[in-house]
Write a structure and sequence with these properties.
499 residues, Pectate Lyase C-like, 2 domains, ten-stranded parallel β-sheet, 16% helix, 30% strand
Length: 499
């Protein structure tokens, strides 16, 4: 028996379904293409906004206006955190200030050398002997002219210590290109407030220049302000100052640096096995040259350098300035061969670690690896940054347990072993979605308490390490730098305005 063909009325649902299916396929395909294009673009919306605004400038009123409107739309999708710029939260990082000076107490029988004038301080440092405790009387000390050279060595048993008896009592002002120039081993500086006071920013390069044989240098619990590179560490004549410690310091600038020199608050080139731990690092904008600046980097062919338990706030009091700011980098922007440890710099860093850091408000990458081999990037929290980038074929990294308000990605052949991280894809950022920010109670008030239960890692088969606040992590730790941020804070009564 022959069946009659379907009527026109019967064919309409089939045709309608076919059209709907085709439209759905088209939408899915278009979404996939757009998503692929955005991920390939490899730039967060706010970075693209700066590029669009720059390219549109000088091309007539219509183009400039259109470029400005597009830039504002992109910034609306990726808004900067409005932070706590009127005061620096009093965070409990590094050694407890109430128990310092730690080093001085550890050196039994050291000779106390009191100084009460700038001239007396220079004399004491230039004639120092192993075990000397060069102790500033409370007051303000101003230095100009040449750097203050620490050219006599301490020993492993008897370091030379330059200190204030108590924090917030000794204020050192440098009107000079570099302040303390250390070229011999075992020098320690504690509890000093150091400020650059040069009329021109290019004239205040470094508070500390650690060079050549100055291994086992220690800076602990100092407040350092208004230099291009608060710490400059590099080799000379084939010798490199290895095994240093920068711990529990507050490093910042109060204005954008008008200079073409490197603006990197910890600028480490060629040295190995440094520990940079428990520091507050903020506000390092650069107006000159390429306008790229860093909170801290290690480059130049060294190895085994570690950045751990630091808070880096690229923009706190210096907000919305031009240029790019990177939080922490292994490799930085690269090194000229003549400055490299092996005179080649096939890799900029080997075996470096970046772990348990809180990095915030950076216009560029929060963590950037440039030709950095066998790196460990673990348990960091990145908020309002360009994320984590592993770049170039020489780079390789284990990236584990990080909590990133941004993307984790490899570029130009970088080898990234990413496991058990939380991140926000570039596509999602272009949709105006920032779910990581919603995990906290109030970022703008620096209230990083969890809004609800902390997100916990699936993997537990790794050696436990302390979190940002020094707490022991449980067997199933939270993603990111800390378990309970309240453990990082002093009582409100101790908080101070930015100085």
């Amino acid at each position: 028996m022959k069946r009659s063909p379907p009527s026109r009325r019967q064919r309409r649902p089939i045709r309608g379904f076919t059209v709907a299916l085709g439209m759905l396929v088209l939408v899915v395909a278009s979404t996939a293409v757009v998503s692929y294009a955005l991920e390939t673009l490899d730039a967060r919306p706010r970075a693209l906004a700066r590029y669009v605004e720059h390219r549109a400038g000088g091309h007539g009123a219509l183009v400039t206006h259109a470029g400005g409107r597009l830039a504002k739309a992109l910034e609306w999708l990726d808004p900067p955190l409005e932070l706590f710029h009127e005061r620096r939260p009093d965070v409990r990082l590094g050694p407890n200030a109430d128990t310092l000076p730690v080093t001085a107490r550890a050196i039994a029988g050291g000779r106390v050398v009191p100084v009460a004038s700038s001239e007396g301080a220079i004399q004491a440092i230039q004639t120092a002997q192993p075990g000397d405790l060069i102790t500033f009387a409370p007051g303000v000390y101003r230095f100009s002219g040449n750097s203050i050279a620490g050219s006599r060595p301490g020993t492993q048993q008897s370091a030379i210590v330059v200190r204030a008896e108590r924090p917030e009592t000794v204020f050192v002002e440098f009107d000079m290109t570099e302040g303390f120039l250390l070229s011999q081993p075992y020098w320690t500086f504690e509890n000093l407030n150091i400020r650059g006071v040069c009329a021109q920013h290019a004239s205040c390069e470094h508070a500390f220049h650690v060079v050549s044989h100055a291994s086992h240098f220690v800076s602990r619990n100092n407040k350092i302000t208004d230099f291009n590179a608060h710490f400059k560490i590099n080799g000379s004549d084939g010798s490199f100052p290895d095994d240093g410690v920068i711990e529990g310091n507050v490093l910042s600038n109060r204005s954008i640096r008008e200079t073409d020199s490197s603006v990197t608050l910890i600028d480490l080139v060629g040295a190995s096995r440094w520990i940079v731990r428990g520091n507050w690092i903020s506000d390092f904008a650069k107006a000159g040259s390429d306008r790229v600046s860093y909170g801290a980097f290690a480059k130049g062919g060294g190895s085994g350098n570690s950045f751990e338990q630091n808070i880096v706030v690229c923009e706190n009091i210096l907000r919305r300035s031009a240029g790019q700011r990177v939080g922490i980098s292994l490799g930085g922007g690269g090194t000229g061969k003549e400055y490299c440890r092996d005179s080649r710099c096939i890799t900029e860093q080997d075996g470096g670690a970046v772990q348990s850091n809180l990095i915030m408000a950076c216009s560029d990458e929060g963590i950037y690896l440039n030709r950095a081999a066998t790196s460990l990037i673990r348990h960091n929290t990145l908020l309002d940054t360009g994320g984590i980038s592993v770049r170039f074929v020489e780079s390789s990294a284990e990236v584990q347990g990080n909590l990133v308000d941004g993307a984790i990605r490899s570029r130009d052949g970088g080898l990234l072993h990413g496991e058990d991280n939380i991140q926000t894809s570039i596509t999602r950022q272009y949709l105006g979605s920032h779910p990581v920010r919603g995990l906290y109670r109030s970022l703008t008030d620096f209230d990083l308490a969890w809004a609800s239960a902390a997100p916990r890692r699936r993997k537990t088969d790794f050696a436990p390490t302390p979190d940002l606040c020094g707490s022991v992590r449980p067997s199933q730790p939270a993603y990111g730098a800390f378990e309970d941020f309240q453990a990082c804070l002093w009582p409100v009564s101790r908080q101070e305005p930015v100085k």
